[in-house]
Amino acid sequence: MSVAAAAAVHVLVERRQTLATAESLTGGLVAATVVEIPGVSAVYRGGLVVYATDLKGSLAGVPGQLLEERGPVDRDVAAKLAEGARDRCGADWGLATTGVAGPEPQDGKPVGLVYVAVAGPDGTRVRELALTGNRDAVRTESVTAVLQLLTDVLRATPARV
Predict the structure, then answer these.
(1) Which residue among 59, 73, 78, 101 is the one 20 to 30 A from 85 at the CA level?
(2) In the prediction, which pLDDT does 35 show?
(3) What is the DSSP letter of 160?
(4) How sure is the predictor about 157, in pLDDT bands with cuts at 50, 70 and 90?
(5) What is the enclosing helix (H) or strand (E) of 64?
(6) Are 109 and 100 in contact (CB under 8 A)?
(7) Alpha-carbon span 15 to 160, nearest angstrom
C-alpha cells in the first residue's frame, strides 16, 4: 500500500495538485495510508469516511435516488463519491472506495466486489474489482487498487500549467 501511496503523492507534489478521499469499505484506510508519506501535507486536503449509506448522500453528495435504486455498492456510486470528495474538499483529484469486505454478502453483492474511482479535472474513472481473501485482505487490496488507479490516471493525463 505504501509504495502505491508514495508513487501517487510524488506525482501530485510534482504537479502541485491536491487530493481528497471518500471511503466506505476502507473506513479511512486510504487516508491513513496516504498521510504516512512524507511531504503529503502539500497535497492532501482531507477526506470523508461515509460508511453508512445515508452519509454517502448527505456528506459526499451521492444522489439519493441512485442509492435507493442501486445501493451503495455500485460503479456510479463510486464515481459520485470520488466527485463528491473532490468537490466538497476543494481538491484537484478525488478518490473513492465502495464495496463488500465481508464476511457476508451485502444486498445480493458478493464479498470482494469493490469499486474504486478517481475523479479529476478531465472526468472520472472507475475500476471494478473482484477480490478474494478475508476482510482485511479485501480492504488492503482496495486501498492499493485506488492508489494505483490514481497513479495510472495521473501518468496518462498531461499536467496543466
Answers:
(1) 101
(2) 98
(3) P
(4) confident
(5) helix 64-70
(6) yes
(7) 8
pLDDT of residue 160: 72
- Sequence length of the chain is 161
Q: What is the predicted pLDDT for the residue at 159?
A: 81
Residue 9, pLDDT score: 96
Q: Which residues of 87-126 are buried (b: 16+ CB within 10 A; e: fewer)?
A: ebbebbbbbbbbbbbbeeebeeeebbbbbbbbbbeeebbb
Distance of CA 16 to the CA centre of its chain: 20
At residue 33, what is the residue type?
T
pLDDT of residue 161: 56
Contacts of range 10-16, beta carbons closer than 8 Å, 24 or more positions apart? 11/151, 11/154, 11/155, 12/43, 12/92, 12/93, 12/154, 13/39, 13/42, 13/43, 14/159, 15/154, 15/159, 16/42
**Global model pTM greater than 0.90:** yes
